Amino acid sequence: MTGSAKATVFIDNERVIVTEYRFAPGDNTGWHRHGHDYVVVPLMDGKLKLLTKDGESFAEMKKGAPYFRKEGVEHDVINANEGEYAFIEIELK
Description:
Elements: E1 6-12, E2 16-23, E3 32-33, E4 37-42, E5 46-52, E6 55-61, E7 67-69, E8 74-79, E9 85-92
Antiparallel strand pairs: 1-2, 2-9, 3-8, 4-7, 4-9, 5-6, 5-8
């Protein structure tokens, strides 16, 4: 990914990759395709803008409320909040 969000990998082994993403206002992940099924755990309440091949949408995130997505998702994720935003992503190998 080539975006401006700060990615910190905490675990990368034969089973999972656990990464924390921290975004200043307007920061993004960069366009990417997920190569694994994954779970995202928001670290705070907030809103993310999602850019996909189908257009733009917004996701309301709730602190501690995880969600699951299947491999193959393609998008750019952008912080749509006035302050910092962060989440943990757990990729299942």
